[in-house]
Amino acid sequence: MSETRNIAVTVNGKRYERSVDVRLTLADFLRGPLGLTGTHLGCEHGVCGACTILVDGQSARSCLMLAVQANGHEIATVEGLAPSAERLHPLQEAFRDNHGLQCGFCTPGMLMTLVEFLRDHPNPTEGEVRVAISGNLCRCTGYQGIVAAALDAAGRMRKGG
Amino acid sequence: MIGSRVERLEDRDLLRGKGRFVDDVVLPNMLHAAFVRSPHGHAAIRGIAKAQAAALPGVHAVLAREDLLPHLRNERLVVGLPSKSYKQDLNRPVLAIDEVVHVGEPVAIVVADDRYVAEDGAALVEIEYDPLPAVADCCAALAPGAPVVHRGAPHNLLAEFRMGYGDADAAFAKAAHVFSESLWQHRGGSHSIECRGAVAAYDAIEDRLTLWSSTQMPHQAMRQLCDMLGRDENRVRVVTPDIGGGFGPKLVFYPEDVATALAAIILGRPVKWIEDRREHFVATTQERDQYWDVEIAVDRDARILGIRGTIVHDHGAYTARGVNLPHNSAETVPLQYDVPAYAMNVRVALTNKVPVTPVRGAGHPQGTFAIERLLDQVAREMKLDRAEVRRRNLIPPEKMPYETRLKARGGRPVLLDSGDYPRCQAEALTRAGWSDFPARQQTARKSGRYLGIGMANYCKGTGRGPFESATVRIGPSGRVHVYTGAAAMGQGTKTMLAQVVAEQLGADLANVTVTTGDTAAIALGLGGSNSRQTVMAGSSAHVAAVKVREKTLAIAAQLLEAAAQDLEIVGDHVRVKGVPDMKVGLAMVARAVAGTAGFSLPQGMAPGLEATEHVVIDDMAHANGTAVAEVEVDVETGRVDVLRFVAVHDCGRMVHPTLVDGQIAGGTAHGIGNALYEWMGYDADAQPVTTTFADYLLVTATEMPRVEIAHQESPSPLNPLGVKGVGECGVVPVTAAVASAVEDALSPFGVRIAQTPIFPAQIVKLIEEARR
Amino acid sequence: MKPPRFDYHDPETVPEVVGLLKTLPNARMLAGGQSLMPMLNMRLALPDHLVDLNRVEGLAYIRETGGALEIGAMTRQRDIEFSQLVLERCPVMHEAILQVGHRQTRNRGTLGGSLCQLDPSAELVAVAAALEATIAVAGPKGTREIPFSGFPKTYMTPAIGPDELLTRVRFPLWPRPHGWAFVEFARRHGDFAVVSAAALLEEDRGKIKRASVTLGGVAAAPVRMKEVEKALVGQTASDALFRDACEACRKIEAMQDVHAPASYRQHLAAVLSRRALERAHARIGAAKMSS
Fold first, then answer.
1. pTM, whole model, 2 decimals?
2. B470-613 — its CATH code?
3. How large is the ipTM?
């Protein structure tokens, strides 16, 4: 049988203790045992970015990490973005208002990538936004609405929105 | 409601990561499947050894064809759209019989506790293959003496047809000028970010099979399952959850859908199969090669006298949809221009590759590329402005509706319903600064920069008939429910339908729910394809909503003792205009005709507050547009950057302008991919050589310019809303516009672009050749 | 695309790693995961043992010692990107690292991982060649140093034993001011370079004193263009000099794949090396003007 390890991972501020197969990817750990299906799998070889989450505040492709590697670390996923059931994160609001999503499959990865980017670059140019999301593929939008949403969100967040 | 940029209904859940895609469907006791697929382009199967795989702890079953046969009434997926042009019927089996004919063809299904173990099991299945000669190229497939794609087949010509009208030979004989092009056109796969997938569950107590499938056509899937499994439609339910992009290939019905369903029946437990990206490259349908030899005859004034030519089209190894794709390509060539004579011979060739079916654009980009390249050549050779040549030949608006001499696949004449093509072209050129460009180009060249501008017109049939279903119902809750056979795949179908219905019933989207993609919710349906849902589902929803509105007002008139024409529906109640306190809730109205035992219904009223419509429209609503691309070519590296892209588009009356913009922008990105990046490559043994996203390049945000979009609205007379489709339109002109621009940029070298995609290495080579 | 079965080990010290590598058959080391995890997911790598280096102490640092930049093997590419020390003392590495993948890649990817993967297109590998880096490797017999020229054995295979672990890399520094450039041709932003060119120049009153010209992506390992360098040293820098010297790059035996035929790579080699030299030379001029 396959080897298992006990891990303790904090996801969106909540601590989870589980026993996992050592070969289970972080993406599958989030989606399966934790039931957090917002993180999506699009390629499983590190190109599409749909699986992007934050590890200790830094964006990473969760399909390229093992769950056991997350032991003792803090993970942030799309489910933790909105402050409440009634309110959205300014980035989510901006996506909604700027048609930044169509099918929504790449969206969680886009959002998490942009959360990190806007935190580190609160006043970006359009070109910088495009570079920032160049590791996230979208087949629906042509990136137009996403870029507009990111710039709009940057503005909102600078104003304290 | 119609025409306004309302908030999308879909966004709230999707933004929170609360979408329900097929891989999010989790059922108790669920098992997971992985397929064993052919590694060969063509081979005979000598034997399948399952024992080692089956013995692996965690594996519950290893099923090959013989295990499925007892449960199948027919083992082949008979899915081809009818056509008189077929010379062979080659329908896919659920699992390979004794021969595999493309890399990726499914041979066995392994079902296990989880996908990890299922893949472990799949690796242990031993299949003995005898490799056979594989055919990798569609032209080679038609050459005399070519090996056959299928052992038993007489040859590799799947179908042949001629499309045309008038006397092309006569036109060419008297022409002032004849120009020809030999084109290689290649398009690739769908590559929706979500791959395919299915979850099948068989309820033995109800004897019902439920399949959750990432499909664009749940009703079709249901019918296919019924036919193949010998079940009646009462016993099969297909549900489409949220789809992470469809783009065409998800409308196809696949062997994996059947195999997954059968595994669930055989094992008595739910089975999930999620396609991974590597599988998507070899098992999901795609578009590929077309080889065109085409010529145009013009008079002294550059007016088209005739067009004729041949197309060889790569069909793949089986018929997974039909010959609609090459039919569309051929049909598009003369479509929006005045072409007095036309003759296109199309041969559809088998190859040992995964089947070819439409990907967003569905053959229209190829037809557009052909005509637009020809017109560019006319302009160049006759020293006319490219825009002027087109102006002289576009069908003018005063001729609308214009019955062309083309025949649609069902046999009806192709009718251009509305559209002002010259005005669309003019607006695009103005926005793009077409007339100022030569000066800018000259200035740039002086500093060693090679800028180019290109244009393309297009026209595309949308709203493929014959109908789409819609039920509009006001329930005892007072909420407005819409059920439809339409399938949503990200384009905002639910929002669009809610707007159409809310326009009639209260103008409050919060009071409308839309259910798509569930065969149990509505009996008939076709689903998403051909940019059809706004037209077809929208029309049915509109007509149904109008009927429900009339009945609502009539009942409310009785309840309020007022005249129906004095009433209006606002939010969730009906009130007297100008007297807001005189009102009755929609809930009450609905209950008034829901029936109470022993009591009569209101005077003259039939039971229920609902209407189901299947508006039949056989003619397609033709959308059109003009694209202008500005590029810079680095002549030392061959790199092409698209600096600007202007898209002026006419999809009739727009239900939601922002959603339309989104479709144009997305289609443009896909088109730039087809023009410069996407190549689905195979070697001479029909082995795919681009099998990951490292090799197969999708555009990212850094390759995209901002797409400047403007709209014209020529309402369609074909449907009550005046709408046309838009989902695939953005992609159609892009390869032509970009090729035109690249050629313009490289005009000092005299380079001709006769292919799509065009890669940097080829541009460098073309420049070198031109220099010699 | 799920990884195959393997036994997992997460040691915390270098000696522990060496000990594991000595005894475990068919073991692979997991650094940033940006190369190995895709291979595991695609089952192109089938190790029996996975040795995770992410908890090993003391392998992540950037410091300047003795005229060189010493960077630990497990230093994240992100940290190299944001290092002020790298930006000031080894700007060619900074320019190169901005072109490595995307933010998510660099957050996890490591220097050592990239070097051991030895992808022909890898930017950091080309930089190591350009600077004549020395690679320190720990094994059962202790530590040994490998000059970069001896590091690539064959295609994507470094000359280190199965029981050895790359621990740090020393990059000799070029004196200030010097000219530098890392220029690459990639199909899309962040893609592996089809061809890259790293140029370093030292000039004395317009005459080239020292030159380093390295081409990546052309052959299995980065190619130091000694012929080009020789043609430059002692000459007065000029566009014509660069163009003529770089023609020699067309003769490199080049790889062929779905992305580019060999002849195109040779062509790019000549073009990019020239552009890199032009940019490096311009930077010396700019540095002199601002000093």
1. 0.97
2. 3.30.365.10
3. 0.98
